[in-house]
Amino acid sequence: MTELWVFGYGSLMWRPGFPFDMQAAGLLRGAHRALCVYSIMHRGTREQPGLVLGLDRGGACRGVAFRVSQGAEEATVAYLREREQVTEVYRETYRAVRLLDGSGRTVRALTYLANPTHVQYAGRLTLDEQLRIVRDCKGQAGANVDYVLNTVRHLEEEGVHDAVLARLAARLAASAT
Asked: Which residues are tagged catalytic?
């Protein structure tokens, strides 16, 4: 297998779960990070779905590009399919990602885009709709509120400010007090 890159825009940024020998901030154009996927397992249930991140159409997304360690490519793809494709709500694809490490390089990276035809695709919800869903949902992995607040904290630690998620996090924190 040739060199494999993986683009992380959410939890893959700080918890990739596969061996890599290089990582760099990266920019993917044509999709943006959004709470656009209904979670029926990890952060919600079938009866009361929560919201998790997906890459939705349009805009751009700053994340992390990982070069998978040589020899670990097949195992990494298998791992990512098991992790990301439990309900097949994402489209596995390769996209051009510009590395933001000063090299000027663009790499072809494996990434997962939200599938707008899937039943779990939430689309573009208003901030109030997101707040209502996230505030009230829990799944196998815990409260949806914790997912959003943890995501925003980790993004900020990576130097990524997501204005929409930050506004939601601020409203969630304010409603908890």
From this structure: 84
